[in-house]
Amino acid sequence: MSNGFILHEDSQRVVIATGFAKPSDNRKTGDMIQIWILCKAEDPVTAIRTGLDRLICGNCRHRGHEENGVFGVERTCYVNEGQAPLQIWNSWKAGNYPPLRSLEGFVGRKVRFGAYGDPTHMPLSLALAIAGVASGHTGYTHQWRKPSLQGWKQLLMASVDTVGELVIARSMGWSTFRVTPDTDHHTVESLCASDRSGTPCADCLACAGARGGIQAIHIPVHGKGAVHFMKGGVL
Residue 106 phi/psi, 5° resolution? Predict the structure, then answer.
């Protein structure tokens, strides 16, 4: 079996799932099938500099800002785009991922919707079908305000950046996930299990949307963009 498959594509994006033939080595998430949303026209590193990453990340503020024609300045996203996303894009470009023909590989597995990019760029019907045969999933979206995407609340967490956004998202029926500076958090928010006890996502699965009830999870800032976050990139 191939380690990765193309789940969906349009003229601008390709959605790829990896982790079928060998377990994921991501210690934070544990062994989960990882789903990546990538720009077709440019590799992830270049797409950030040109601003084309808006096609996969939408209005996410963690993309950074534009300065003198260069985008992604003071980026606060935790993902290191020059590592796994770039490797997967290069592998896709080389034709190493066949189209998905069956959901068999997802049966009984844990799935991470959106290891990079916003999962709402894949069909909701496909995501629901995958979640229906998987043994658990996690997922997040910054596009939770859009009326056309409200059906995703059953599968994904609303990625919120302020307490005000948390309140609004919860009033709309979304579970929430928020990256916070140090120990700052709202009283309804619970600390991510990976920080609280070292439990990987695959064993926790609290970030599975609102299907089982509205949750509110927070995690202290971490990853590649943490330095810009703490400098005030996100309030």
Answer: -90, -15
